[in-house]
Amino acid sequence: MAHLGTCVDGRPHVAPVWYRYDESDEVVEIVTTGRKLANVRENPQVALSIQQDEAGEAQWMVSLLGTATVVDDDDRTERARERINAKYDAEPEAYAENTLVRIAVGSASYRTY
């Protein structure tokens, strides 16, 4: 799971999201709706924080800063949703109301523990 940071009214808004890294395009894909999607439409500058734990112990973390693009294409969203849902063992049609957002990573920082 990742935490997506967006901006609303000049203040940060952070929420957990499922994600998938698309190596072929070097972008992070999420499918979302509601406040997160509205925030990205208003201001595409976002942050993602991802941490890997093992038995409750942090192994590594990465923070990404990037620019999000909303993809208002039902077919592309459906395919991305199926890929993300497969990663998290969810039904392929789960979260059918969500919209695809692709995040081009501008910078990254990481730490291992």
Number of DSSP E strands: 7
Arithmetic mean of pLDDT: 95
Shape: globular
The end-to-end span amounts to 18 Å
**Whole-number count of domains:** 1
Major pleated sheet: 7 strands, antiparallel
Uncertain runs are none
Can you describe this structure?
By secondary structure, the protein is α+β, with helices and mostly antiparallel strands. It has one domain: Electron Transport, Fmn-binding Protein, Chain A (Pnp Oxidase, Chain A, Roll). The chain has helices at residues 34-42, 74-87; strands at 2-8, 11-17, 20-22, 27-32, 45-54, 57-71, 99-112. Strands 2-1-5-6-7-4-3 form a seven-stranded antiparallel sheet. The radius of gyration is 14 Å and the shape is globular. The two termini are 18 Å apart.
Keywords:
113 residues, alpha+beta, 2 helices
In short:
This protein is an alpha+beta fold and 113 residues long. It contains 2 helices and 7 strands, in the order ββββαββαβ.
Topology:
Blueprint: E1 2-8, E2 11-17, E3 20-22, E4 27-32, H1 34-42, E5 45-54, E6 57-71, H2 74-87, E7 99-112
Antiparallel strand pairs: 1-2, 1-5, 3-4, 4-7, 5-6, 6-7
